[in-house]
Amino acid sequence: MPDGMAPAPVAKAFADATISIPLDEITTLHPVTDTVRASRKYAQITASVREVGLIEPIAVSIDPRTPGRYMVVDGRLRLEALKELGERDAVCLLSSDDEAYTFNKRTNRLAIIQEHKMILRAIELGASEDRVAAALHVKIDHIRRKRRLLDGISPDAVAILEDKHVSINAFDALRKMVSERQIEVAQAMVVMNRFTVSYAKTLLAGTPDSQLIAGRRRRQKTNGVTDEQLSIMQRESATLDREFRVIEETYGLDHLDLVLAKGYLGRMLANVQVHNYLERHHKDILAELMQLTEQQATVA
């Protein structure tokens, strides 16, 4: 920014405080259908509003066509749940944007470890397991299982998977491994971007007995797999893990070298004399080099 120039003011997207608006003054662009009302998501929202009230305000904007009315920008299901429960007003956040912008497109689904911590925090604050289950519209056994989610899991493995959407059953496989192996498996899941129970069980099958918790039973051996084949798979799994770590450590530098090389190649081919020389004497090489530069342009 040039000296002496003040930064341009940034317009506020929302009002500084929430406001209470009667429900009959709020309209939605898309009505809530019977199919949506029958969905699990709507049932969870209704249960949450019934048990603990409206936690997240409804985002609204002023209806430019009808004075004194508001349009829902985000939160039409919460609005419908309030109406169904007989409420008259809603806590709203007034947006200066009058377009139907969906804020949930910028919202990430809560990871399972974060959900576990949220449940623990709610119970610490005095909420019973029954009430938490009712608020989330799930069975109490589901809450108890998530409450014990990290029992027997290494803190280092937890830190690696904290923001990942891991299958709840994958933690059962992790508990059968020693802490060091849990960390290795968690790193492998992140590198491969695979967090399913089937992948966790595959890594468990490839875990040597020395890295299993004493008294923990490995998944039953697959029919047709001999002890020798299992031993080979374990060695290959260890080798693959080491190779992935090497690739992960050098990937950034290798990618930078590739980008620089392709950039140099593009500038070289832009030289008319070089281009003409290759066209006269090395057409095949020129075609290959041109293809590489075109691929780089496509990636960019």
From TrEMBL:
GO terms for cellular component: chromosome. SUPFAM superfamilies: KorB DNA-binding domain-like, ParB/Sulfiredoxin. It comes from the Bacteria. GO terms for biological process: chromosome segregation. InterPro entries: Chromosome_partition/occlusion, ParB/Sulfiredoxin_sf, ParB_N, Plasmid_RepB. Residues 19-109 form the ParB-like N-terminal domain. PANTHER family: CHROMOSOME-PARTITIONING PROTEIN PARB-RELATED. This is Chromosome partitioning protein ParB. It comes from Reyranella soli.
